[in-house]
Design a protein that fits this description.
Layout lengths: L1 H20 L9 H8 L3 E6 L8 E5 H6 L7 E6 L2 E10 L7 E4 L1 H7 L6 E6 L5 H9 L6 H12 L5 H14 L3 H13 L12 E5 L8 H11 L4 E5 L9 H5 L9 H11 L1 E5 L7 H13 L4 H14 L4 E8 L8 H16 L4 E8 L17
Parallel strand pairs: 1-5, 2-4, 7-10, 8-9, 10-11
Antiparallel strand pairs: 1-6, 2-5, 3-4, 3-6
Helix pairs in contact: 5-6, 5-7, 6-8, 7-12, 8-13
Amino acid sequence: MPRLRWFINFTTEQQCMNLRDLMPGSGKLHPKDEVWKYKKYICKATCFDISAGSKIVVLNEADAHANDLYTSHRVVLRHKKAEAIAILDLSSDLVKKGEIGLFSEATDELGITDGADIEILHMQRPSSIEYIKKKLDGGILSREEMTAIMSELMQNRLSEPELASFITSVYIRGMNENEVVGLTQAVVDSGKTLALGRGPVCDKHCIGGVAGNRTTMITVPIIAAAGLYIPKTSSRSITSAAGTADTMETLCSVSIKLEEMRDIVKKSHGCVVWGGALQLASADDKLIKIRNPLSLDPRGVMLASIMAKKKSVGAEYVVIDIPIGKGVKIANRAEADVLAQEFISIGKRPGMKIKVLVTDGSEPSGMSSMFSIGKGP
């Protein structure tokens, strides 16, 4: 009789658990999640000397399903006191039961080697997915919602399809000024910032689209020689054979730490370095990796990306170059003037003074064509 009573009680509780699993919006852990808090799932590490581009791990398919884990699920990996969030892939033969395959991004962060014990914990669905759906439906995102998306992006809580959905949503639905300002600040907050403790601090940026544009390497020494400060961060190649950082690297190292950059600028008033090595506006690098394969460059994201990079180095005065013409991002002067006013308006919000110059993108850049079309707004 006690066994029968136990069976009836267990069956009833299990049915209740299944019903509660279907109830959304409670904000509480579902009962099965509560069960997984107490049932430990530990695997032996198999390390792959391969970079996957993000923190991805591989579990044995049968083993994962037995533990209620499926492809693209997010899990927390725990090794001693270190933790990392990863996205799941499953395989029937790449790893055996009781093993977990880790690519270099995960092994480097956790500091593990082959055979190490890795505890795998279930993770709840990120709250920012609801905000991405809101934007897809045409809603307006608050600063707090933008911050949540960028925060979970940095924590690796969002998968690439979810991030692609975010980029697609702002490409289709657009962003108002408040949204762009909110995204700008969220991107700034995602990384480190440069504080020189002196000024004035200047910066410049070209929105791109012109092959061989090397105005940075001409402008920075001129500004520094005038006694102003210009801590210029540049990118490596994205769509061309070489970016400004790649070109500068033929003359000197551009991969330096933030503290070294600060010392160089204080001493020489200027520098040209690779922004990716500094962890400035870190979320922007992740957004770029999503935007490029999609060939999508939403205007709001572009504005936030540029403004965040300038704000993160403490820029007070910024010159923006907008090339126009055939084959570049902006086709005509009317479109350039609208974009110029957006830069100026958004730049005022975090306290930056913006000057925009519309230039001829059909001529060689960095030689005689700079500032060839008017003075800009």
